[in-house]
Amino acid sequence: MGPWRCLLLLPLLAVPLRAQQQQFMEYVERRLTLLEERISQWHDQSSRYSTELRDFKNQVLGMLEAAEKEREAMRTEAESAAVRVDRLEREVDYLETQNPAPPCVEVDETLMEKQVATAKQRKNEKYTKLTDCSDTIASVRAMKILKRFGSTSGLWTKDAAGKSEKIYVFDGTANDTVYVFPRMREFTLFSATRKAARIKLPYPWVGTGHLVYDGHLYYIRQQGLSFQVIKFNLANKTVVDSSVFPAEEQIPVFGLSPFTYIEVAADEEGLWAIYATKEDEKNICLAKLDPGSLDIEQMWDTPCPRENAEGAFVVCGALHVVYNTRLPSRSRVQCVFDVSGTLAPEDASLVYFPKRYGSHSSMKYSPRERQVYAWDDGYQIIYRMEMKKKMEV
């Protein structure tokens, strides 16, 4: 083929090549347009899914808030139910103690009459000691002022027999709520009663002569002209026993503490009751208590006068009466009565307590710690005692 023929074929070949290029460009444009449409669809769907996810999240948060409110409401209802159940249990305990079975009442009255008769027969007899304790107070070794808490009159103490470190506080001279602090440290540091546990008693107490002994609270209840010793279990919050104190026409046992008619005390020998009656209104009386049955085992008339007495406690079977003056001065143990007769009153030491604020409304001796827990014009004080053998005094 000659050169001139090739020149003639070039125009013919150029026409199909341009057509192919045009078709290819159109194809590419269609594919790009389709891709743009798909990208736009994906963007729309992504936005819709984000909106739905956000709405779902808000819905879940609302449901969680509603569930939390329902949980809080259920917790409040449960606490309210627990309070009502506790109140119902106390009311049942109260009704049981108020309405015991009639045969038991008759038996208890008969036993009490026999008990009083036996105690009167043994009145002022020689006491048979239960322990070999022969110590007596020589002096006040140290004094520690813990804090000022509550009313001007009250009582604070530990368990005189058990190993518990709990502090029991009776604020005032007539109430039905006992404050309980877990240890001395908490009682010293806490300034508000909201930090303390509360024990609601089935009957209100009177005076400041109560005692915590071996896991039980022995407290005084007044019914008209008579007085009851209530034995209350601190573990299960129930009344274990109660007994009308077998003394007629009782009067305040301490001349300077007119709110206390019976002082329940503990020492190495067990439980004692310090009281006074119109029969011998000038002097203080003493009785030995059975901690289990609340029976009176023996009774004594003491030579210790009521006048100017502000408190008393028992150490190794010897009653120690603390005196002051109408205008508060320095408290002192001025009368000692030993039921075993081994310590004559004139041989006892004259023990002085450091003068502080006023006069003591309560003084509780702890035989396991050999110290006295005192309440002086709203101040809580610990007196550590120096002890000696009775024969050395």
From TrEMBL:
Main location: secreted
Protein origin, superkingdom: Eukaryota
Pfam family, one: OLF
Record flagged with keyword tRNA processing: no
Coiled coil: 57-98
Residues annotated as domain Olfactomedin-like: 132-389
PROSITE patterns, sorted: OLF (PS51132)
Signal sequence interval, chain numbering: 1-19
A GO cellular-component term linked to this record: extracellular space
Keyword Protease attributed: no
GO BP annotations, alphabetical order: signal transduction
Localization annotation: Secreted
Keywords, comma-separated and alphabetical: Coiled coil, Developmental protein, Disulfide bond, Glycoprotein, Secreted, Signal
Entries under InterPro entries matching the protein: Olfac-like_dom, Olfactomedin-like_domain
Similarity field: Belongs to the OLFML3 family.
PANTHER family on file: OLFACTOMEDIN-LIKE PROTEIN 3, OLFACTOMEDIN-RELATED
Name this polypeptide is given: OLFL3 protein
